[in-house]
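Section 5.1 Outputs to date
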Amino acid sequence: MSDTEWFEPKVEEAWWHGLARRFLALGPIPRHIAFIMDGNRRYARKQKCSSFVDGHLKGFAQLMSVLEWCRQFEVKEVTVYALSLENFNRRETEVEDLLKLFERKLIQLLNKLFCHSECMYRIYSSG
């Protein structure tokens, strides 16, 4: 993994990403950005995925791409809303699968973050 990338495998970028980067570099960069992880099950259904987990995996990959942008643009604070109480109203097996996936991906994210010793990170959990 190169010093300029946090996460592997690298998500292939769309044609407009370079244009968006140049545009963003023109103005002030926000100090804090928040993301709400929503719509992964709808995405999985629309794409006719074999499991809703596939939608969550795609959402996580997209989040990693966005976090890389935040790092490149030196955004100081990032908030990610990943689970809501509504998630726990689903079938028990779906909740279990979602929590296992969340734990696995959170560990993956933390391992990658702490490999970058040049940056300081604070992780907060709420709820």
